[in-house]
Structure formats: structure tokens, C-alpha cells
Amino acid sequence: MVETGFLKASEHSMLTEGKGEHEALLHYTNPDVDWRSYNKVMLDSVSVWKDKETQDVSPEDLQMLTDFAYGQMHDALSRDYTIVTQPGPGVMHATFAITEAEASNAALDTITSIIPQTRILTGVKGLVVGGKPGFVGTAGMEVRITDAQSGKILGMAIDRRGGTKDLSGVTNDWNDVEKAYIYWAAAVRYRLCMLRGGSNCVEPEA
């Protein structure tokens, strides 16, 4: 996977391939962390690390996407943690970065959802783009969670999701990307709950 610059090269070397359900494509979990000792989160604004996908996204759309992603993360984490603005005992520092944001074409997505055979009109190259169905949005995100006082890395992850062919929200070009942010927020909450040894962890909807 291409390095974006959000995670350092030394941090990339710590990542391993995710294989379990709801695990990111690449991830790292510090084995020496008592996750139950953390009850607060300092949540940074979501940043954008531009690549060939995000460089052509308008500033207005990028602002909308970062606000939406931050809102989802804030809502998910605030269910189990107190959101704070300063480091202190029991505080995790969570930073998220948008590394890919490709809008679907809402009109074409509607057509290919209703009449799959119409995909032949796009030509062979249009059927699959980067491992995803044509005319479906994709999203990439990276996360780093550290101890807010010491800076010790607690966990990191890199993930990428592509949209699916359905009729929900097809009038919104960013529907697939927003769905990815909703999933990731729920997945982060679920993963942290599991690491704490919780008994009522809520699995994200795939």
C-alpha cells in the first residue's frame, strides 16, 4: 500500500495485515497497553493528505467530508469516553486522516444499479477501477492513537473501502464515502471495546 506521509515510514514497518472480521487492511496494536486505564479521548480535527484521488476534490467537498468524518468519530467515541481538549492521565490522543476520497457518479450509479447490463456501455476498463465496481465511490483513512501524555503509540490502522451497488443514497455523489466513515467510526468504537474486554461491544454494520 502506498505511503501517504501521515504515518511515518518507521510506523508503517510496525503494521501487519488485518485478517480478522472488522480489522483494517493494515494495523498495529501495542501489546503492552492496559486499555481499561483510558477513559478520555483527545480527538483532533480530521486532516486530508492529498493524493491523486483527493487532489481534484473541491475545497468545499473536502471540508464537508472532514466535518462529516469528525462528527462520526466524535459521536462514536463519546459514547464510551469523555472527549477532552488537553492531555492528562487516562487520555488517548486520536488522529485521523482522509487519504482517499473519490465520489461516485450518482446518475450513472443509479443506472448501473437498476440495469446491471448497462455497465457494458462503459467498456471493459470502466467495469472495475482499482478493484471496485465502476461508478462507485471509494474512501481511504488512516488512524494513529497515542497516549496523550507520553506520546507512546497505542494503535494504528490503514483501511480502504469501496462502495456497493445499491439504491440507498444514490442521489448523493459522496454517499459511498460517507458510508465508509460511518463504518470506520463504529469499527473504532467496537475495536476499543474489545481491547478493553467489554462484554457488550456493538459490531459495526459492514
What is the element layout, followed by pairings?
Elements: H1 9-12, E1 16-17, E2 26-29, E3 40-43, E4 47-48, H2 59-77, E5 82-84, E6 91-102, H3 106-114, H4 124-127, E7 128-129, E8 132-133, E9 138-147, E10 153-162, H5 175-195
Parallel strand pairs: 3-5, 3-6, 4-6
Antiparallel strand pairs: 1-2, 2-10, 6-9, 7-8, 9-10
Task: Describe the model.
- The chain is of the alpha/beta class and about 210 residues long.
- The protein has one domain: Rossmann fold (3-Layer(aba) Sandwich), CATH 3.40.50.
- About 30% of the residues lie in helices and about 25% in strands.
- It is built from five helices and ten strands.
- The strands form two sheets. Strands 1, 2, 3, 4, 5, 6, 9 and 10 form an eight-stranded mixed beta sheet that branches. A two-stranded antiparallel sheet has the order 7-8.
- A hairpin with a 5-residue loop joins strand 9 and strand 10.
- Helix 2 packs parallel to helix 5.
- The chain is globular and about 40 Å long.
- The two termini are about 20 Å apart.
